[in-house]
Every structure is written in C-alpha cells, then in structure tokens.
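Researcher: Next entry in the queue.
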Amino acid sequence: MNPEKIICPCKKVSKGDILKAMAKGAKRYKDVRAATGAGSKCGKCEKEIRQFIKKHRDD
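Model: Structure for this entry, 59 residues:
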C-alpha cells in the first residue's frame, strides 16, 4: 500500500492521512471525514474510504 496515494481527490487526502487520523482515534467514516475532510465534497470516494477504514481498523 502506498500511503501517498490520494483516496479523496477533491480534498487531496491520501491513504496515509487517513491512517494518521485513525491512529488519533478516528474509527468510523464520519470520524475520518471530520478529521481529514475526505468524502465531504462530492462523496464519490465514500465507498473506497469506508472499505479502507474497515480493512485497517483494529477492532
């Protein structure tokens, strides 16, 4: 996985940015969206972000 890969083009949020937000306590999509802005403009990346969070969450 390339942490520099942009997952939300509208807000220029990378996979690494999401991992950092998750490390600081963002565990769900709405938490990641609030912390990074990812998925808050057009929403086309929401499904991919949700899948990424699910894959990398340490429940």
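Model: The helical segments are 15-23, 29-36, 46-56.
Researcher: Noted, moving on.
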